[in-house]
Each structure stands twice: as C-alpha cells, then as structure tokens.
Amino acid sequence: MRVHENTSVWRNGMVAAALGLVLIAAAGDALAQGRKDTLLVLVESGPNNLDIQGVGTSFRSYVASWNTHDRLVSFGTKTLADGTLSYDYTKIVGELAERYEFAPDGMSVTFHLRRGTTFHDGSPVTARDVKWSFDRAVSVGGFPTFQMSAGSLTKPEQFEVVDDYTFKVKFLLKDKLTLPDMAVPVAAIYNSELAKKHATAQDPWALDWLKTNVAAGGAFKLEKWTPGQETVYTRFDEWKNGPLPAVKRVILREVPSAGNRRALMEKGDADISIDLPPKDAAEITASGKYRIVGVPVENSLLYVGFAVKQPPFDNVKVRQALAYAIPYEAIMKTAVYGRGVPMFGGPADGPKTAAWPQPFPYTTDIAKAKALLAEAGFPNGFESTVSIDLGDATVSEPAAVLLQESLAQAGVRTTINKVPGANWRGALAKKDLPIHIASFGGWLNFPDYWFYWGYHSQNGTFNTMGYQNPEMDKFIDAARYEDDAEKYDGAVKGFIRMAMTEVPRVPLYQQFMDVGFQKNISGYKYWFHRQLDFRQLVKN
Amino acid sequence: MLILIGRRLAAAIPSVIGVVVVTFVLTRALPGDPAAYFAGPNADAKAIAEIRTALGLDRSLAEQFLRYVGDLLRGDLGQSLSTGRPVLVELASRLPASLELTLLGLVISLSIALPLGILAATRPNSWVDHLCRVIVTLGVSMPTFFTGLVLVYVFYFLLGWSPAPLGRLDAFFSSPPDVTGLYLVDSLLARDGETFLAAAAQLILPAATLAIFTLAPLARMTRASMLAVLSADFIRTARASGLSAATVVFVYAFRNAMLPVVTTLGMVFSFLLGANVLVEKVFAWPGIGSYAIEALIAADYAPIQGFVLTMALLYVVLNLTIDLLYGIIDPRLEGAA
Amino acid sequence: MTETLRHVRHVLTENPVTLLAAGLFVFFVLAAVLGPALAPYDPFASDAARALQPPSLRHWFGTDALGRDIFSRVLVATRLDMTIAISSVILAFAFGTLAGLAAGFMGGATDQAIGRLVDTIMAFPLFVLAMGIVAALGNTVTNIVLATAIINFPLYVRVARAETAQRKSAGFIEAARLSGDGEAAILFGQLLPNILPIMMVQASLTMGYAILNAAGLSFIGLGVRPPTPEWGIMVAEGAGLMISGEWWVALFPGLVLMLAVFCFNLLGDALRDIVDPRRRS
Fold first, then answer.
1. Closest C-alpha to B244, from A5, C32, C122, C91
2. Per-residue CA distances from B97 to B162, B289, C17, C181 (Å)
3. With CB atoms 3.0 to 4.6 Å apart as the test, which of A324, B109, B122, B128 could cross-link to B214 if both were Cys?
4. C64 or A31, greater pLDDT
5. Residues facing residue A511 across a β-bridge
6. Interface residue of B48, B144, B172 to substitute, partner A, most A CBs within 10 Å
C-alpha cells in the first residue's frame, strides 16, 4: 500500500474537522442579540402541570403558577441582615384586593378588588372569578384542599360574592392562619369564564385543560411550555396589581446536571441558577465569580427521624443516645459546606424563646451515647438501617455515610438504604423507616403549624416517625388557636421542650436556599414557597 | 421480497408480545406506588386510595394487562403520570431528538472507524495496526457519561469552543418548522442557515461522545472483515492481475467486506438507541433515553412500557432493513436469512 | 501442551499490545486478590478535615468529598468490580453456551424456542432492561450481576448457536457419529470443546461491558450502595466535581476503570489470535 492513499483519507478528515469548528464559531455570534431583554434561568427540572391545583402537580411546577396568577393578598417585604430582600410574613398586603377589612365580630373579612384589572385575555377580573377559584381549591381534593384547610378554609359556603368587586370570606372559627393562607400559591385566582369554557360534565373544574394552559391575570403570561425542556414567560404589560416588572421575558431552562449548570453560570451563559448544591454555593461565594444569595428557609429543618413504634426506637433513651452519636460538625462541614444554620449544641436546660427552628441541646458525644445505650439495655449496640431519598442524594448521601460511621463507633451498625425519589413519599408514609434523613418546611411561618404537621398524633404525612403523644398534642392544640401572646409562647415552649427531651427526630440544621445570580442581576426577593418571583428582578 | 418481509414480520410478533408482557410485569414490580406519587406529598390514605381507583391500579394484574393490551391495539399508549401528557405524543416528539443524535454519532463514527479499520487491515500487525486498535479500544473502554463530561469540561469550559450543553438548541433560538423532527434536516428545508448552525453546534459534543464509544465495534469489524476478505483467493487473483492496491482495497475488498459491517452497524444502532440514556442525561438532550430514565425513577408505568415497545418495534424494523440490505449487498444471501 | 504454550508465547511476544494486556490482567488479578491487604488507608474511613485534597505523596490519588483516600478505594474496588464482571460473565457464558449448543445442535422446536427467548431479550434496549431489573429487584450486587448476565446472555447464545450450526455437519462430527458416539457425547465431548475457545473470546470481550454496565447503573443511582467502593460509583461521585476543579476524584477511578475494560478487550483480541485457525497459518 502506497502512503498517499492514506493521506487523502486523513486530509479529508482534517478538512471536515476544520469545517466543524468554523460552524461552531459562526453559531456563537448569532446568539449575542436577544440576550438583553431576557432572563435565562437554570433549573434542575421543570413543571409537570401548569395548574397548582391539579392532581399530582410537582413542587417544581409552583413557579409557573406563582408568576402567571395573582392572589387576593400577598406578603410585604423586609430586608434581611445581609441586605437580601425577603417576604415579611407579618405583613399582609393587597394584590388583587386593594384593601380588606375584618368584620367587627372578627368572623369574616371583606376584600375590595382593584377595578379595571383584566386577565391575560382582556376580560375583567371580578369577585365571581375569585369565588370560583376558591371553591375550586377547597373542592378538588388532594394537596390544594389540604393547604386551604390549614387556614380553616374548607367550604364553598364560606366564600361570598357581595358584588362585582367585593368578595367576602366567612370564618368557621377564628384562625390566625386564615388570612396568610390566602396569600399562598394554592389560593390562585383563575379566569373562571375561560376555564369554564373548557370544563366538561366529568371535569367541572377544567383540570384537564388547565394542565397545559393558563387562565389567569398575573404579571407574566405563559409564552411556551415544552415539558422536560423549558418554560418561557412574557410580561403581561397590562398588569395592574403591582409595579410593572422590569424584565420582559423569562426562560426557565431545565438542565439536570448540576455540573453543567455551574459551568453555564461560570461562563456567563445563564443569568440565574436555582437549586445550587451546597458545595457549589460555598465555593462560588468564596471565589466571587458570580453572586450567591443564601437564605435560611423559614420554618424548615433537615433532621434524622426514628420509627418510634419499632423497637428499639420506642425507648426514649435509645433515641437520646443516637442523638449524641450524630457527627453534627462533620456533616455541617462535609455534606452541607456550612450552607445551613446548625440546629445542635443549644442550651442544655431547654428553650429560651418560642422561636422555631431552634438548636436542640445535643452535641456529638460518643461516650454519652454508649452510656445511654447501655442504660437502655443495649451495651453492645444493635443493627439497623439508615434510609435516604435518592432524589436528594447530594446532601443526604454524604450525611448518611458520616452518620453510619459515627453510629458504628457507638455500637450501632447500619446499612444505607437509598430510596428512589418516586418511592420516597410512599416509604415515609408507612412510618417504618427505622432511621431516616428527611426534611420538612412549612409555608406558614408558625411553630404550631410545623408541629401540627410534624409531631401531632393526627399522624400526617410529615410526622414521618409515627409519633403519637397526647401530652404533646395538648401543647400543640393549645397554641394553635391561642390569641394571648404570652400563653401562646408558653405553649410553644412547652411543645419544643417536649420535642427536645422525647427526641423522636433529631434536627441537624436549617437549610439554606441558595440561588446564583450574575453580577448584573438584582431585586431578588426570597419567598417561603422557595420559587423564583420574576416580578422584582432587574437585569442591568 | 414481499414474502420475505411478511415472513420476518410474522417471526417478530412473538418477541414483541414477549416484550410487552415482560415490560408490563417488570414495571409492576418496580418499588413505588404511582398512586401515592400522583396524589402528591400531602395526600392521606383516603386520597391515595381514590387515585388508585381512578388509575385502575386496584384491579387484578391480569385485568390491568388486558386493559393495557386493549388500549395498545387502539394505539393508546396511556398517559405519563409525571408530565400528564399522552405517552404517544411525548414519544413522537422526543424520538427525532434521539434519532438525530444517534444518526450523527454513527456518521461521525463511521467516518473515522472505516478508514481506521481499512488502514489496520492493510497493514496487519504493524505499529499502525496496533495504534488503531489501542485508540478504538480506549474509546470503548470509557463510560459514555465520563467521556461526555470530559468533553464538556475541555471543549466548553476550558476552551470555550463548544456552545453550552443546554439541549438541542440554545435558549434564544426557536426550533425550525416540524417536518421530520430532525433539526438539521428541517432547518435546511426551511432554508434557515442560522438555526442549522445552532443545531449542529449543539449536536457535535454529544454525537462525538457516542462516536467515540462506537468506534471500536465498527473499526474492529471492518478490520476483521477486511482481513478475512483480503486473504481470500479472489483478492490474490486481483492483485496478481496487476490491479492497483487502491482498486483492490476499495473496489473489490471493501464491498465484499461490508456485509458484517452492516450487521454490526445495525446492532450498534439499536444498542445506541437504548444506551444513549446516559449521554442524554449529561447533555440535557430531550430524547427518549432521558424520558425513559425519568419515568423509571418515578415508577411511571406508561412511558416505560411505551418506550420499550417503541424500541422493540424499531428493532424489528431495523433487523428487517438489514436483512433486505443483506440481499442487496450479497445476492447469494437473499431469502436465506 | 508445549505446542500450545509455544504458540501462546509467540502470540504474546509478536504483539506488544497483547503483552501489555496480559500484564494488566495479571496486575488486576493481583489487585483484586491482595487489594484490601495492600491498601494504605481504610477505604471507609472518612476524614472531614482532609476532604478534596489533590494528589500528593500522602494520598497518591488525592481524597474525595468525605476525606477518604481515593487510591485505597480504587484498589479495594478492584475486587468488587472484577467479581461483578466475572460472575455475570460466568452466568451468561454457562447458560448461553448451553442454550446455544442445544439450539444449534437440535434445531427444530428447541431452536425456535430459544431463538424467541433471545429475540425477546434483544428487542429490549439492553441498558434500560438492566436498569429495570435492578430497579425492580433492588440494587444489591446480586441483582446487578443478574441483570448484567441477562443482557449478555443473548450474545453467547447467538455465537454458540452459529458456531454449533456451522460445525454440526463437519467431518469430525460425522466421524464421531460413525464411531458410535451418542448424541450427548458428541454434544459435550466434541462440539463443546470445539466452540469453547471462540466462546472464551466472547467472554473476555463482554467482561468489559459488564464493568461498564455496573458503572452506568451507578451513575443513575441504581448501582451498589454507598459507602461501598466501586469504580463506577466513584466516577459518578466525582463527575459533578470536575467542573469545580477537583478532577482527581473522577479521573483516577475512571482511568482504572478504563484500563480494566481496555485490558479485557485486548485480551479478547489476543485470545482470538490464539484461537482463530486462520491466524495460525
């Protein structure tokens, strides 16, 4: 074989490669325009349903509802210590409603809607739309109805259309959570006329049509939704329920790989990145390549829970022993990279305030753990399993490995059980995971709210330990409807103290919500629902 | 020819049935309760039970299977729980993405593997041969997700030559009007040069990842097949008759050596359609591979069943095409498969 | 015997790459057997203070996100990965060869039945099938081995069947039959030893795929459970770290993984050189 037969092959190959590189470079130039008016936001995954009241709507879908719908009221703004804007759960301000007043007997509230507001299709917003939306929320069942009931909003009879622009909500009982509950994403206002056009006899609430369509009047319209890829929003220029947003167009792009998201941000190819792993957040904060805003998620905890109905976890000494065997510092450093507020090492004699979450009095003390285990009748420890959510493995996996090692030192030998994301809820619901690492955050920032879902013997989904104790219930029930501030604090401290000594779950830390921004983006406001609110963002 | 096609299709039916049954059983064996998943995080036992009835999951497996087959025969692949859309629609929209990626990957792979294989075969046991073998074997020894990540790191992050791994098109481009679903083809048909370039730029890294992985079987088969053919008598005769080396290799040897290469190509193609799940995950590629993974992790029955069934049918069509190609390439084999 | 040995030595020395592969193979076997004894650190011992340190004299391959020594983990992982590969290959090899023999030799209904089974398995996108099996049965080493064996099974059946069918009417089989050997004796005494070398080539080649399969499963989270050291899961853990500059966490396990697969693939070639009659001339 002579040589030149081969070189022609090689030569052709070289030419092709060069052509390829030229193509790449040319494409890059075309992208430069169009960037200035649009925000490109990176998320790990996107909506599975545009209707927050839909069946099976995922957490990641809430961002669509929040930005395309209005609610009657919203929360005000406060500034945190580091200058970040946050919602203020103590201030309820009007959104669709211009103003509201409570009845003299305190058993109802009347909202006066802003006049001249329209939905995206131009039709006027009236109190009838509000009633339809609220009726829907309490009637469709599932999560939305649950959420409404958390504020004692349960029956359509409570909602009354006084006239086109006046809407009244009657209370079944006095509940401090009722008004805030109307500011949560679930209490969205729908364009009822448009929705009713697509309702059927079997589907009176148009659940099917609203899965893939938006009937609303919020600050942003849905331009395009490609499931699994991206969601595109454009500003609704006739929006009247607040100052017109500065940003005209927002693209939420789904990029499953955290590494790719980081690369895109570092190269400046994207504006905002939600869902930052703690390691990335810590490192970028240190390097300053772009800005990280980390806000402790209110009323939220990551914890180690025990299946308290199963031996040996039914023995409080065992639970306390394990609380002393957790490698808190190591987890904070190696799994969380400091992106959390520690919830351990608190005062040994119980809660000083009625704040929640607050640090529990446990620290890493293997000797104490062993002593307690011996007292409980397990001088040689025992065997068990640590279960974690595979869908949350970035933090929970290293935490579980560290936990396993530390527990082993105290004599408790464990295997790690990774439960796939889809099955995690189901597994938790059975309340039989001996040792599990989980988290729970409540939308309404009240300790009794958290404890109601997490510790009460009504045994809701978030009471992952299956803990049922009438003494604990007494405190929680007392606090729930207590008006008197001092009595309320007393009840709260009561149930917190009990949680500390009984320790069916051991708090590890309060998570940060870490969001990454390019340096020219400002106006970020942290919300309890942890979704990005486009309305306050500014791209300079 | 038609009889051949008919016979092959008939022979394929049992395996398709087998696939449907096995997938059904396997998805039902997946740990995870779609009803609980569907009902949402705050649902109580009652709500979950209601959803279960609504989804038909409370009936016996046999009855569920019969309903499923009934739906299948009507062309209804069911609905995805996680996206809420009909599986058929989703597969149809995502299949072109995977096809385009796989096809381009194969084209790149062939354009490197064929010359390498021929080169190695014409100089057996020389250092060139060994080098070729080492190169392609290295390529197939790396896990595809690792290769993909390294390529992104080097070409996007370090060198900045490649665009961001954001999927088929950069955020600021819209897809060309849908004719085949293959962006390269559609953008050319719409005479949209910009979109063509943008789509091509996004395709290069993931296609290269696939190509690196498939070099080995194609190059090896080319080499082995060429070696076998080159040592045949008729080649010796051709050489002895004074034909140039190039003619011998390309006109006579290569064509005769192509058959096993075509078979390998078919196997590689069908393997890739299932195996590029990992590449799709790394590059955020909206293909059926990533669709299947998400469905599997979410224990979402309908998409998994739909995906596997589609793959099985594609496989049947592919095998049939290869058999027909056999007949064209080597008339001796027509009807013999 | 010496003839074979001489031939083997000839193959090894004529092709330096084969020698390299053989050397690697010996190295891996040694690592698998002696690994845990030779590891400088406990592969499970985490040390938060020393997390993510680059390669140094203290830690040849650096440390991972939990401060564990990567070199020790990679070394110890050899045993697990080799076990997974060898077990699944043996399973697939045994059942596949027998099935292929039966199908090729007996033909007819047996051939049809086995052919259908193989076609059904092969109609699946194989990796997704492996994922499905492990997801359904749980991610233990046994299930990973089982899933890998199942998806490799068809390949062995096909090769065995083809080779058997080819040799079925060969001269030496006729001769054996004429000299009074029963069908079973022909099947196991004549055909099986005859196709065995070619099957071993297949075995060597699929060994690499078995390891890659386990690595792929780990990437999606369906692989072995933490904190077990296994090459694939280590690459998966390190993959996300590459972008932040900690290249060593993924690179070293990835390189070793690649070397192992590489070694098995080349060995397959070498075996084929030994076995293929055409090369012998």
1. A5
2. 19, 10, 39, 57
3. B109
4. C64
5. A340
6. B172
Place of tokens 């008598």: B233
Identify which of C119, C221, C261 has the shortest CB distance to residue B141: C261
Backbone Cα Rg of chain A: 26
Distance CA A332, CA A342 (A): 7
Q: How far is the CA of A178 from the CAs of A54, A184, C280, in angstroms?
A: 22, 11, 87
ipTM more than 0.90? no
Amino acid at A242: G
First to last CA, chain C: 18
In whole angstroms, give the CA distance from residue A179 to residue A169.
10
Q: Which two tokens stand for residue B57?
A: 């999951």
Of B131-140, B219-228, B245-254, B259-268, the least confident: B245-254
Mutate to test the interface with B, among C124, C234, C266 (most CBs of B within 10 A): C124
- CB contacts under 8 A, B 248-267 vs C, are none
CA dihedral sign, ordered A144, A149, A152, A154: positive
Distance, CA of B173 to CA of B209 (rounded, Å):
24
Q: Distance (Å, rounded) from C-alpha B333 to C-alpha C11?
A: 35
> Over 90: is that where the pLDDT of C65 sits?
no
pLDDT at A350 over 70: yes
Q: Which residue is closest to A430 within chain B, CA to CA?
A: B45
Contacts of A350 (CB under 8 A, 6+ apart): A361, A493, A496, A497, A500
> For position B154, what pLDDT does the model report?
87
A142-200 pLDDT tens trace? 778 888 988 889 999 999 999 999 999 999 988 888 999 999 999 999 999 999 999 99
Other CB atoms closer than 10 Å to residue A335's CB: what's the count? 29
Whole-structure pTM value: 0.79
